[in-house]
Amino acid sequence: YGKNTIKFLRLHKEGKKHFVKEVEVCAHLRLTSPQEYLEGNNSLVIPTDTIKNIVLVLAKKNGIPSLEQFAIDICNHFMTTFCQVAYVKTYVQEVPWQRLHEDGVPHIHSFICVPDGIRFCEAEQCRNGPLIVFAGIKDLKLMKTTQSGFEGFYKNEHTTLPERHDRILCGELFCKWSYGECKDFDFDCIWKKIRECILEAFAGPPDCGEYSPSYQKTVNCIQMLVLSRVSQVQVIEVVLNNTFYNVVDMKNLGLSNDKEVLVPVEAPYGSCACTLGRK
Amino acid sequence: YGKNTIKFLRLHKEGKKHFVKEVEVCAHLRLTSPQEYLEGNNSLVIPTDTIKNIVLVLAKKNGIPSLEQFAIDICNHFMTTFCQVAYVKTYVQEVPWQRLHEDGVPHIHSFICVPDGIRFCEAEQCRNGPLIVFAGIKDLKLMKTTQSGFEGFYKNEHTTLPERHDRILCGELFCKWSYGECKDFDFDCIWKKIRECILEAFAGPPDCGEYSPSYQKTVNCIQMLVLSRVSQVQVIEVVLNNTFYNVVDMKNLGLSNDKEVLVPVEAPYGSCACTLGRK
Amino acid sequence: YGKNTIKFLRLHKEGKKHFVKEVEVCAHLRLTSPQEYLEGNNSLVIPTDTIKNIVLVLAKKNGIPSLEQFAIDICNHFMTTFCQVAYVKTYVQEVPWQRLHEDGVPHIHSFICVPDGIRFCEAEQCRNGPLIVFAGIKDLKLMKTTQSGFEGFYKNEHTTLPERHDRILCGELFCKWSYGECKDFDFDCIWKKIRECILEAFAGPPDCGEYSPSYQKTVNCIQMLVLSRVSQVQVIEVVLNNTFYNVVDMKNLGLSNDKEVLVPVEAPYGSCACTLGRK
Amino acid sequence: YGKNTIKFLRLHKEGKKHFVKEVEVCAHLRLTSPQEYLEGNNSLVIPTDTIKNIVLVLAKKNGIPSLEQFAIDICNHFMTTFCQVAYVKTYVQEVPWQRLHEDGVPHIHSFICVPDGIRFCEAEQCRNGPLIVFAGIKDLKLMKTTQSGFEGFYKNEHTTLPERHDRILCGELFCKWSYGECKDFDFDCIWKKIRECILEAFAGPPDCGEYSPSYQKTVNCIQMLVLSRVSQVQVIEVVLNNTFYNVVDMKNLGLSNDKEVLVPVEAPYGSCACTLGRK
């Protein structure tokens, strides 16, 4: 198969107000015949340069109504235009430009980059198969400074980790979910709702939080809340890349340290992941 | 000289509410004698490990009231404790954790990382010299999609750039300023005010913006506004790393493109910088 | 499942001569029951910290005879020690330290890091299934400045790429292959032989090279040569991340440019990949 | 001032044999008047795009005889062509392509990237001042597994580091030196000689090494050897970014560990630097 990455910016005006979407598009294609590999016969090969042109032309003609719709448009174009394409997958990722505000007033043409979780989506289709749409968020860094522990784990002669009932839970989240038949979805609205679910399940109620007995359980809580609140989601995958913090032992410096000063532990570096679907 | 980098997290509670600061501290030391270099005599050398301990002990004892105060505390400690230190500089940079909000309600112990410009500061002192404090913001990515051009520049036989009066202005800002004698400054409040000045000077009024004839002039506007609004700032340095966008030529694809689809240009990559002080 | 990354260095002496291996080990585990996710029951969970200890203890006891043998040792340990483990995969990657030479004389205890392709391997096992071993090389950057073209590709109204019969072929290679039943393999020797095959297939004969009609065909040549020369390889996957170079058009600077000055093209960025096995 | 980065590849043939240099050039310019900053008057500004064209034209016309000569050529061009330029600095860095060998036979047109230390240089000139040339090597990672210690350092109540007489010394080297009047220098030859001095001073004799009492002393040894062996070097700066390794304590795992298994310590991360010139 072949893969191409294209970055570009789509600018759009309504009166004097500007709207901007900067995206990175990655298109994977697999052809019906591997003759370009086996025989060096390029007659069915769609050059990277042509794929780039198609993506830019679609952006020019249709705009980017939502990341998901744009990914669907690209898939459809390749499937309907090129009979030699057996499979197409398009990945679209957004540069997180947000409108700038001055004293609460939105600016008509200025933007600031706020990377507090990156939105992405995928559309995928095999010839004669259904078009499947995924969406997700990545690079979302979250921390809770209490209401987290890790106890009752398996122990043997290689165990040196003490049990802890009040540690810091910190990590980088990757979430990706699939939609079922996605007729007339408001993708932007659903995505925002899911992001809120993720934050709520991670943090718990604002006034007291909710105890997490492990990274794994927190992963599951996120999945359960999204599945229960957002009916359009069929399957959800969550990966939590953990950052561990150790309370610094200050005894030989003559000081106590009641979880006040902690250092991030670079290694071992862990992650846990789970994929959960509806029955 | 020697340099050390330490990352840690300082947690602080007021009742059930948690406050978190995660910082990266870098301490530069120069000793009065270079004997450890020339003779391999280590008797005056303060090991990296000791420096780490000192920074953590200070964080434990004093907390991190502000980045600047913490940098000052470290400088003072080294100058008063070690007579072999001829010069000390401490750099402190913040991991941009922000309190999480659910439906507008702040969470008591959960945080999200929002890297829309990283705050840092420096405190620097030579023995018998004044303590100088710098503060700054880096990795601040801004874009304005109109009200920017570049015309009337110098031309010769190597010039191929056309003049443009409506281009995209996009870049990554680095700003660093020095304070004068900093008695009783509210460093957090001043920093926020300066950040607002930077955004305002970059973007112009929310309803119409302000025309920028060059990256250089925008750099100067930022400096002028900060110096005029914030009396504590003595000198301000601004570096703007430019990202250029080219309007895609779609003529041979049979389409016009009225600044709707643009691609970022990786090379040449430019930056402009200027340092401006008060008379 | 869970995943952990550990970095460490294993030092070994024969007389006064030192041998060093620095590796990054990543262990993936899947348990027979997902109860830690669903119920927050940690009783079967093997903490990251324990996994780290096991890896370090195995390195201490057995050393690292080869990356592959070390990966196999870890797999075996987890399968035989923990009945709750349903699946284990270990990935081992080497930091490319090479013995330093002075005027051709090898140094007994000094090393230099030479990252001209990174060696890695994987061992993988499901409970009651066979242990499968993979090996590979990544981040191997190669270039040939002639004997490469791209012609006869598919064309339509979105095609703007000209045909070229003398372009630069440059890319970053990732190769990964699987071994069959690996009794008494000399993994180090086989790996070196495969690396030589890759370079030979990419470059062709030293005095004239061999024409490549596409990145895809070069990928296939590498696979064919490895499979024909190295009987232990069962399946080989090759990914070639292309770097395109454009000849700079210097006409409006009054100069011709006969493929003398070229600039790398950042976007579109492409890659091609293929997996090939024996019949 | 303004700064620009350009990446390109210069290809050159002698008969059927190809020679390739890929470089990154960064040009800093300061103009005689800051009017583009203060007044938005661009009439003296040399656009990034023009600078790019000049660098490419020089590469086409002169080739890249050595990095240093190319940097000198660019400086000279700007000083003689543009009277508004008050200061110019050019930095040139090489992509470390090496000719591929098959069974010891050099390939006529294939290359492999071997980043075991990156070569760079700088040429710098103020109007009416001398042209100064610097050269250097960076990202050179070296390790010695014995003949290194750290003892007799300054101790107080914050000291927790034990004295060690047999530790691992590992780091990333940055070296930069200046040449005096550089008439007819063979820059390639001198650079190779200095690289050999660095390796020799770091490692000591191949059969026994040489004891290093500190990172600082090793820095000084490198400087002393280069200054004594290479008369063209006037001043040499060395920065050594240390990677510390801790012997893993395996007592509570029931094992001794005689410097056999070590883990890299991410923080504190230190570096030491020194600049040394001739009397």
TrEMBL record, chains A, B, C, D:
Any single GO CC term annotated in Swiss-Prot or TrEMBL for this entry: peroxisome
Broad class of enzyme this protein falls into: oxidoreductase
Keyword Phosphoprotein belongs to the record: no
Reaction catalysed by this enzyme: urate + O2 + H2O = 5-hydroxyisourate + H2O2
GO biological process terms on file: purine nucleobase catabolic process; urate catabolic process
A Gene Ontology molecular function term of the record: urate oxidase activity
Enzyme Commission numbers on file: 1.7.3.3
Keywords: Oxidoreductase, Peroxisome, Purine metabolism
Keyword Amino-acid biosynthesis tagged: no
Location relative to the cell: Peroxisome
Major subcellular location class: other
Residues the entry annotates as binding urate: T48, D49, F150, R167, Q216, N242
Residues annotated for O2 binding in this entry: T48, N242
Pathway assignment: Purine metabolism; urate degradation; (S)-allantoin from urate: step 1/3
Taxonomy, superkingdom: Eukaryota
Residues that hold 5-hydroxyisourate according to the record: T48, D49, F150, R167, Q216, N242
Annotated function: Catalyzes the oxidation of uric acid to 5-hydroxyisourate, which is further processed to form (S)-allantoin.
NCBIfam families: urate_oxi
Family the UniProt entry places it in: Belongs to the uricase family.
Protein name, entry field: Uricase
Organism, scientific name: Dasyornis broadbenti
